Amino acid sequence: MRRGLAILCGLAVLAATVAADDWPQFRGPHRDNISRETGLYREWPTDGPKVLWSVEVCQGYAAAAIHGGKVYFNDYNRETNEWYVRCLTLDDGKELWRFRESKRIRPNHGITRTVPAVDGKYVFSFDPKSVFHCLDAETGREIWRKAFVQEYQSRNPPWYNGQCPLIEPDRVIVAPGGNALIVAFDKATGNEIWATPNPEKWPMSHASVMPAELGGVKQYVWCTLKGLVGVAADDGGILWTFPWKFNIAVAPSPVAIDHERVFMTSCYDAGSVMIRVKHESGTFAAEKIFALAGNEWNSEVHTPIVYQGHLFAVGKKKRGLFTCLDCDGREIWTSQGHATFGLGSFILADGMFYILEGKTGMLRLLEANTSGYKELAGAQVLNGHDVWGPIALSSGKMVLRDMTKMICIEVGPPTTVEADN
Fold first, then answer.
1. What pTM does this model have?
2. CB 3.0-4.6 Å disulfide test: which of 48, 60, 62, 349 passes with 110?
3. Secondary structure E strands in 49-174
């Protein structure tokens, strides 16, 4: 009896020390693509992680947001020409509601691309033709919308809109381009809190707005084909710009390395650039620290992760090597000789990288370090092609997709998501 009680107490202590986290938007709660969950499995069964559920989805890359045990994602029905926002239970994939809107969208390297943002009360979803929807998180009822092409004279980028909204405690941030570079909307009403002027008419891109604190000032950083910009979080005023030419499309988002450095990479031989944002006497200025040509290193689709003072991402050079770079742009190690990942996505959790092979759906688990490639496990979790959609993780459950289905796999023991403070 005592031994049984001891075991039960030990399990209770273990459960209490395993941390869970929501994944409420693109790149997670902190927008850095790093989960704070702990206690995840470092080994998998020979047949791979347990598949908890699977649902059919329209071709595309629209990944999940997870909040409070619910999964939210964008979808499309080609037979009825309806665009969807869907809500499922995380535990078993049961559908709770589906928002529908008639919208004719032809396949163009897939149809869906964006990740919703959710806070438990509202769901914010950006459709492929740049209509921005606010829905009730419990019912899917639409509360307000903004049609960017009509209201801001935005221009849809090639291959449809791919931008993911940024959710904050009192606002949601998106970048229309057109008549307003970046806009902060009140979450409840859709009223503008502020709108950043766009005198140069920088267009919308596939990149998403990212939060940063540079020079001691909270701001939002964004990138278009014309370059990078930082705007003040309090009033949307332009703090600095950094003109830089990108080709055809910009998919990755800018990432702040620290309180003064910002790294940006893009596809189509545009390469990468590290800039320094200086703040002196109330004035901001941005300068180049170094640049990498496309034949040196760049990322075509996904934004790098900053970890232990290094950058980690799937590079385009030699098509798909997972790479560790230092913050001077030097290559420390790659996955060459071990695996290639195409345009696959990746996430960092509990000291491990989860990386999808973009052509095959193989999921590999790597130890996160700056010294070399160390694979812990691998499993064929998907069988489709163009497995490019971002990964989401919450409560030991990982949600991923290919061009035809979305699945949820068990990568850690059951946990409870901690309530917001």
1. 0.93
2. 60
3. 51-56, 65-67, 70-77, 82-89, 95-102, 117-118, 122-126, 131-136, 142-147, 166-167, 171-174
